[in-house]
Amino acid sequence: MLTPKVFTTICIILITFPILLLYHDTLKELSVPYARPIIRPTPQFVASGNSPCLPPTTPEMTEEAVRRHATCRKYSPFTTGKARIATVTAHFGSPSKHYQKAFQSHLLHSLIHGTEVGVMCDAIVDDLWNKPAFILELLMRETMRPEKERLEWIMWVDRDTVILDQCRPISSFLPPENSRFGSWWGRGDRNHDGYNKREVNLLVTNDSNGLNNGVFLLRVDEWAIFLFTAILAFRHYRPEVDLPFTEQSAMEHVIRTEQFKHQTQFVPQSWFNAYDHGGAKMFATREETMDMNDEWVRRGDYLVHFPGHPDKGRAIYEYTEMLKDLPDVWEKATVQRDIGRDVAEFWRNLG
Ligand SMILES: *[C@@H]1O[C@H](CO)[C@@H](O)[C@H](O)[C@H]1NC(C)=O
Fold it and tell me: Considering only Cβ atoms within 10 Å of each terminal Cβ, which end of the chain, N or C, has fewer?
């Protein structure tokens, strides 16, 4: 529908465009000092804390990233997203070889896609509560930046996760951004807190125990600050509530409340939080997936997560070793599940 606002804008564009073309050269000269690309004044990988938990970026890693980037461009169906995204994780406590290897799979992914990585190397509070504490700290830090330099989304990943498909960008999961037009023309369908009721700010998945917050996507926004403030404070304000999975249970309670449920979107677990079934060797060689549950990983999936795995260290080690030798699933056409169409359909159905 051509609303008066849209009409006016089209007119403005039609009128100003030829003028801009006419003065293009002049403008180019005038704007030289301002035309430099925005370079975020931070390195691509940021470690928080004093302990050195960020593995060094070796020349081998950079070489592998360049090589894989070329393979992904040639064979995978993905386009490069423009959103500023960071993978955020925590690696404190005594370092262990398998978690470092798992972390390296995320660093490689970040090098391939030009995203960022934020890692918490030292604890701030007790145990698992460090996760919401660090996320809140990071959100506040980001929000202090000029809007143009700010991260738009973060993907939290627990340390027991390994990237399986280095070609799939994080942006491929995100809701389509045409909702941005909404914010240009006045913020539209807003509830009393000022949030667009249909805007998705959090993508989470369930497993058989309910919410699993080992991997989730969060829009960097005031909403996220309020959400993580509520999660971090939950045990103090609702001490009577039993939290069998500590901060994960607190998060589950909070995202069910009227204040937060409208911007929270549950998505299928298979998108980015599927679990191992049968081990690394089986993953690489399995031919038939008919009898598999949806939440079990197979070739073509983005990531594998090992919550509650009885032999976690070994499983992670075996997966990382297997992935070194596994030929690219797009190049060799060994993909068993490509959620691409599901993702598009999912957001289309939500309007
Ligand atoms: C997620 O799990 C919780 C707890 O079992 C359940 O109440 C909720 O309906 C589930 N949500 C979805 C979208 O499956």
Answer: N
Find the 210 Cα to ligand 1 centroid distance in Å: 5
- CA–CA gap between residue 295 and residue 198 (Å, rounded): 27
C-alpha radius of gyration, the chain, whole number? 22
246 Rama sector, left if φ>0, alpha if ψ -120 to 50, beta otherwise: left
Positive or negative CA dihedral for 158, 161, 163, 168?
negative
Paired sense of beta strands 210-219 and 153-157, if any: antiparallel
Which of 266, 295, 349, 350, when mutated, tests ligand 1's pocket best, judged by the most ligand atoms within 8 Å of its CB?
266
CA of residue 343 to ligand 1 center, whole Å = 19
Closest among 137, 166, 153, 143 to 49, alpha carbons compared: 137
Residues having CB closer than 6 A to ligand 1 are 206, 210, 266
Chain centroid offset of residue 321 CA: 24
User: Please, are residues 289 and 298 in contact by the beta-carbon 8 Å criterion?
Assistant: yes
pLDDT in tens, 181-193: 444 444 445 555 5
Give pLDDT, residue 79: 87
Write the CB contacts of 53 (distance below 8 Å, at least 6 apart in sequence): 47, 91, 92, 95, 119, 121
The mean of the pLDDT values for the chain is 87
pLDDT digits (tens, 9 = 90+) for 78-102: 987 788 999 999 999 888 999 999 9
Backbone angles phi, psi at 180, to 5 degrees: -60, -35
The closest alpha carbon to 44, from 90, 106, 131, 127, belongs to: 106
Phi-psi region of 215 (alpha: psi -120 to 50; beta: other; left: phi over 0): beta
pTM score, whole prediction: 0.84
Cα–Cα dist 264/125, whole Å: 26
Which atom from ligand 1 is nearest to the alpha carbon of 266? 13
The SS3 of residue 299 is: coil
Give the SS3 label for residue 174.
Answer: coil
Beta bridge partners of 275: 296, 305
Residue nearest to atom 3 of ligand 1 (CA): 210
Type of residue at 96: S
